[in-house]
Amino acid sequence: MTENNYQFDVLYLGSGHGAFNGAIPLAMKGKKLGVIEAGKVGGTCPNRGCNAKISLDMPVKVKQEVDAMQGRGLDGTTTINWKQNVQHEKEVINSLPGAIEESMTSVGIDVIHGYGKLVDGHTIDVDGNQYTANKIVIATGAHYNQLDIPGIELAHNGTAFLNLEDQPQKMTIIGGGYIAIEFATIAAYAGTEVTLLLHHDKALRKFYQPFVEELLTDLEKHGVKIIKNVTPESIEHVNDAYVVKTNQGDVTSNWVLDATGRNPNVENIGLNTVGVEYDKNGIKVNDHLQTSVDSIYATGDVVDKSVGKLTPTAIFESSYLTKLFSGATTEPIDYPAVPSAVFTSPRIAQVGVSVDEAKANPDKYDVKEANLASDWFRFAMRENKGKTITIFDKKGYLVGMTEISSEADNSIASALPFIEYQISPEKMNDFITLFPTVASETKHHL
Ligand SMILES: Cc1cc2nc3c(=O)[nH]c(=O)nc-3n(C[C@H](O)[C@H](O)[C@H](O)COP(=O)(O)OP(=O)(O)OC[C@H]3O[C@@H](n4cnc5c(N)ncnc54)[C@H](O)[C@@H]3O)c2cc1C
Ligand SMILES: NC(=O)c1ccc[n+]([C@@H]2O[C@H](COP(=O)([O-])OP(=O)(O)OC[C@H]3O[C@@H](n4cnc5c(N)ncnc54)[C@H](O)[C@@H]3O)[C@@H](O)[C@H]2O)c1
């Protein structure tokens, strides 16, 4: 029996990481749960986000490593087969929605397929059928922004890129965020001539800009043409090509990607009907992820939040609600330092206090910069561009780190416990790492 005789204790609108990561352990605690999904179970990340993207990146990373070892034990470069790579990606992701649905149904969760709309604080309508719950969690995620210019319907979004079976000879990418830069890398390494249109003079604005400049220079070496401070004005189909008309002239290619960001899915789900407050940045929540309607909570990309709209933050929020709903906590949500990485070649990754903040506050922080080319292990990998910057407070505790290298994601990941658990400089030596690894060499910089 559920609380107050509702059909469900908790009903999730959406089945992405903001829902299923918390729903499964909550169901295992005996709660009766329902998860409503209009599209593929598992949402963006497994089906058309992180997992799909990183599968396409695997040959790119290997190619970068093979290129680096030319004449150092390896003779002969390699080329990326676009069609095979997309097939490889499909083989990785195709089974995920079924597996995620099975992991929910196996613990008694009802997965309801259809489009849900809030009717009141305890009821969701799914294609004419009404479902009631003591609590509702809105986890509807986000959708691609579409530039408001004539001819934009001739451009494609990130999902189309991940499903693109025929390699374009030339591609125009509008945007300078994660998706624009990661997809430019994948396409350029496969031999597509990419033109990247940056709205301003900077890309990846949340990352340390000297590292971003190095990344852009490296992309240029791989044939990417970068045009800064450009405003796309329209797109036209001329003969077999697509022409992006801009304030700096025409850019012609066979395929155009609109990578100008993502917007939260707040429209047409009944938020106005029930009085849930939101704006273009997402649903407003308090420090318990509760919306302006007491019985309704929100997680993931649909939430207006200061931390990154990333899979691990969606998982953290979903898991927090599991603790809240099961009575394991009454405390507000308390995010740890949130790492982020751009999965390019080389990668840039960062966590904690930023380099800019540290340099602006020399009374609070010490900044240590290291060129990784002089690390013997990175030298063995022929990593010649790597740089790492570590940031310490005045007591010598690690509080932030930023790296550019082919292993930046793994290097930052290995430093996370030292930051989150505030390991003292003396205690750091109590850890024995595997040797020789990225982690063992990263530790020398901490
Ligand atoms: C191309 C790409 C690459 C990315 N790469 C990374 C990465 O490398 N690392 C990282 O951390 N993050 C990455 N992200 C971000 C990450 O995918 C999201 O932060 C994460 O998926 C958010 O999860 P969510 O549960 O909030 O939303 P989603 O996963 O989007 O799930 C929302 C679900 O709700 C469903 N839905 C919406 N409205 C309704 C309705 N009315 N009724 C029923 N169902 C509904 C949708 O169909 C969807 O399945 C990437 C995103 C993209 C697009
Ligand atoms: N590695 C990762 O963790 C990863 C990878 C991909 C996506 N994501 C997530 O997905 C989300 C979406 O990524 P994204 O790259 O689409 O968004 P983004 O917000 O990172 O970048 C959007 C880009 O579009 C540009 N832009 C905006 N309006 C424009 C205009 N009118 N004309 C030209 N350019 C314009 C911006 O300047 C910016 O460079 C992000 O929130 C990110 O958290 C994460």
Automatic annotation (TrEMBL):
Name by which UniProt lists this protein: Pyruvate 2-oxoglutarate dehydrogenase complex, dihydrolipoamide dehydrogenase (E3) component
Cofactor annotation remark: Binds 1 FAD per subunit.
Domain of life: Bacteria
A Gene Ontology molecular function term of the record: nucleotide binding
Binding site for NAD(+): 175-182, 261
Disulfide cysteine pairs (residue numbers): 45-50
Limits of the FAD/NAD(P)-binding domain: 9-315
